Amino acid sequence: MTTLAAAAAGLRMLAPDQRYGRVVAVRGALIEVDGLAGAARIGSRVMLRAPSGPVEAEVIGLDRGIAQLMAFNEPDGIASGSRADLIAGQEGLRPSAAWLGRVVDGLGRPADGKGPLPQGPELRRIKAAPPPASSRSRVGSRIETGVRALDLFAPLCRGQRLGLFAGSGVGKSTLLSMLARWTECDVAVIGLIGERGREVQEFIQDDLGEEGLARSVVVVATSDEPALLRRQAAWTTLAVAEHFRDQGLEVLCLMDSVTRFAMAQREIGLAGGEPPATKGYTPTVFAELPRLLERAGPGAPGEGTITGLFTVLVDGDDHNEPVADAVRGILDGHVVITRQIAERGRYPAIDVLRSVSRTLPHCLSDEDNHIRLAARRELATWKDMEELVRLGAYRAGSSAEVDRAVALAPRIEDLLRQDRRQRSFAAQDFAALAAILENTHEDAL
């Protein structure tokens, strides 16, 4: 009887059926499987059997009984007739506080060689819906980023989502590292999506450091990994951030970059036969962007917040290209980093006149707003007249307003110059900016 009872218990633990199919075609990154009709769903996981070992894949499309798959790793050894087992059960993550200080891949597996990850009690979906608008709290109070140009001209609030827009090689990743170290938060969740492989350890060891890593979870999917894993890493980043938000914590979510998430989604869509639309981007790209970005923000009353900072790599320095334009309309502000300012040697190369925080003016005091607007007027006047002044076409004394901007704008620019290892403090920065505007001769720094 004991043996029969044990056998019955074992049978009850087995899945009621085991569905599998066979590979019938491989077209580039797309793998077609027959035999899963009626069982496979969009997003279902499938394990492909290959001589080199199992290959995990995901169903991205269905076509007349044929399941279309893409693999999470290189499908080496997959051949026509290879067995494809449908994986039963719900896919998700089980994050916990023990994940702090760890580096994981897009599937939530350890990627730092420090052993297995302790699993939390709650299963959390990797691709989750944003919270209902009616149940969310409002954006909270201002938080200091430690970056002078942002704290003065594009302040960040708890639960706000800010985009960092830049071309390649103008200091976007350096600015992100400054924000990761200094922005006030309880937990930081950092997604490196499509990042260069050699820069991952540099960011973790040099930019983040031991102290920064101790309060962070880093999700990594490098540029050489399949598009499916790069997209998954972005979803995993938000899923981990949502876990800590639901614990009542103030979470800082950094993602570099949203553009590479969009590129991965474009690659997946094109492989599945989706028609290209704007500049080759498929329609699902513009559907997935708000679903991803809206997951950041304030939680429900009693929960924490996810303050999101998302980088956008603008194509050819065109800030109106499709992804940049779509993201700018979703987020609560944008910070523009320009090549012209970087070429002048002023870092971070933030163009404060083109940068906008949609929490202004309410997040600053009346006095700080007065100082900020006065400084913007001086910089705007200088920008309008800069070329004439440099060419000698403007004669001093012709306009008191221009004369004042010519005197003050270079000093404001010097104030905005900041070394990557130098943390600033908002109260001191506003005092220094006020001193410049009063045209005093004391050291504004």
TrEMBL record:
Keywords: ATP synthesis, ATP-binding, Bacterial flagellum biogenesis, Bacterial flagellum protein export, Cell projection, Cilium, Cytoplasm, Flagellum, Hydrogen ion transport, Ion transport, Nucleotide-binding, Protein transport, Translocase, Transport. One of its GO terms (molecular function) is protein-exporting ATPase activity. GO terms for cellular component: bacterial-type flagellum; cytoplasm; type III protein secretion system complex. Residues 158-342 form the AAA+ ATPase domain. SUPFAM superfamilies: P-loop containing nucleoside triphosphate hydrolases (SSF52540). It is found in: Cytoplasm. PROSITE patterns: ATPASE_ALPHA_BETA. It is an enzyme of class 7 (translocase). InterPro entries: AAA+_ATPase, ATPase_a/bsu_AS, ATPase_alpha/beta_chains, ATPase_F1/V1/A1_a/bsu_nucl-bd, ATPase_T3SS_FliI/YscN, FliI_clade3, P-loop_NTPase, T3SS_ATPase_C. Residues 110-140 are annotated as: Disordered. Its main location: cytoplasm. One of its GO terms (biological process) is bacterial-type flagellum organization. Its EC number is 7.1.2.2. PANTHER family: ATP SYNTHASE, SPI-1 TYPE 3 SECRETION SYSTEM ATPASE. Belongs to the ATPase alpha/beta chains family. Probable catalytic subunit of a protein translocase for flagellum-specific export, or a proton translocase involved in local circuits at the flagellum. This is Flagellum-specific ATP synthase. It comes from Novosphingobium silvae.
